[in-house]
Amino acid sequence: MSTEALHRLVVNGDVCGSGLLGWRAKLRMREAMYEVFEAGFTAAGIAEGAYHMEDRGDGVLVALAPDVPSAQLVGPWLEGVYQKLRQVNEGRLEPLRMRVAMHAGSVAQDAKGLAGRAVDLTCRLCDSGTARSVMQLADRAPLLFVVSDALYHDVVAEGGACIEPEHYRRARVSEKETDVEAWFHVPRLPIPPLPAQTSHEAPPSPAVPARDRPCATGVRAVPDPPPEQGGGAGHGGTVPPPASGPVEEGAAAGAGPAPAPYVHKYKIEHVGGDQQNFRDNTINTNGGFVGINKAAAPARTPAPGPPADDAPHTGPAPEGGDR
Predict the structure, then answer these.
(1) How many domains is the chain built from?
(2) pLDDT digits over 112-140, tens only?
(3) What is the CATH classification number for the domain harbouring 82?
(4) Is the dihedral of CA 136, 140, 141, 142 positive or negative?
(5) Best label site of 99, 108, 228, 322, fewest CB within 10 Å?
(6) Do residues 167 and 221 lie in contact, with contact meaning Cβ atoms separated by under 8 Å?
(7) 17-54 pLDDT per residue, tens
(8) 215: left (phi over 0), alpha (psi -120 to 50) or beta
(9) Residue 50: other Cβ atoms inside 10 A
(10) Is 229 domain-assigned?
(11) 178 within some domain
């Protein structure tokens, strides 16, 4: 076997909480773990001879053949793993939960197994304190996916089948000699719940819009809050209309356009200090009119015909009457 290092994609999977299991439960866990990984390879159309797999007790280490596209693992393989996890967890009192990490780089392989910095980094991303914290925060999620910064920008950010870069977030991983940035993703969550001390940088816009990608999960990304508007209605600013919820993908056609936002008919302008102008009337915000528009309102044209008996008197007031 050649020991020359080749550029390969490395995958490391680890089961959460396996140390609490008895040996019988651990054997059942290992069986389910391998079923999950193999279901991913089937979903991605990757033949058994196209990858090398090593047992790690409560985890698995895999290196793909150099000619296997990384996008097949980041997309269809990951989706297959997630779906199989959901299936094996049906009826389980303690659901199987996994952390999975990926990185690509130079990998050497000898009779004993895999070696190289790419292997080391992948395993540290998977076993990092940041990854463990995310799984504790997302305590109902069966799967966490972590990719290196390089793999994110080279593969994930480009989008593709079952790849949703808008749902990834970046955070720092500091383990042993490793101090790097990595990207975290919890399938079916808009954003992963990262620990407070890590960064939460949103990813750039994906190269392929979500609506044009197959395997879309239907999860909508949470947009960043809009910038603050300058001032409120009482200070010459404008009040933004209430935000409507996002339109779900696959909504029925012909539902009609969204209602137009409310537009104020009259503009309130800031004059100075506590004074504002409304329809040419100057108002003090602490109470009272300062200047009143004395222009007479336009006269109304009366309707044709004799006035009704109870119509108000519109002629001049009689002498001695109230004025």
Answers:
(1) 1
(2) 999 999 999 999 999 999 999 999 999 99
(3) 3.30.70.1230
(4) positive
(5) 322
(6) yes
(7) 988 888 999 999 999 999 999 999 999 999 999 999 99
(8) left
(9) 15
(10) no
(11) yes
Name which of 141-150, 214-223, 228-237, 304-313 the model is least confident about.
228-237
| Residue 249 within a domain | no
Structural domain contains residue 210: no
Taking Cα atoms as reference points, which of 220, 113, 116 lies closest to residue 164?
Answer: 220
Q: What is the pLDDT of residue 88?
A: 96
Domain that holds residue 151: 6-185
Three-state secondary structure of the chain:
CCCCCEEEEEEEEEECCHHHCCHHHHHHHHHHHHHHHHHHHHHHCCCHHHEEEEECCCEEEEEECCCCCHHHHHHHHHHHHHHHHHHHCCCCCCCCCEEEEEEEEEEEEECCEEECHHHHHHHHHHHCHHHHHHHHHCCCCCEEEEEEHHHHHHCHHHCCCCCCHHHCEEEEEEECCEEEEEEEECCCCCCCCCCCCCCCECCCCCCCCHHHCCCCCCCCCCCCCCCCCCCCHHHCCCCCCCCCCCCCCCCCCCCCCCCCCCCCCCCEEEEECCEEEECCEEEECCCCEEECCCCCCCCCCCCCCCCCCCCCCCCCCCCCCCC
What's this model's pTM, rounded to 2 decimal places? 0.64
Residue with tokens 């947009």: 223
Ramachandran assignment for 71, one of left (phi > 0), alpha (psi -120 to 50 degrees), beta (any other): alpha
CB neighbourhood size of 291 (10 A): 12
Sign of CA pseudo-dihedral 2, 52, 145, 55: negative
Using only the alpha carbons of the chain, give its radius of gyration.
33
Give me the amino acid identity at 94.
E
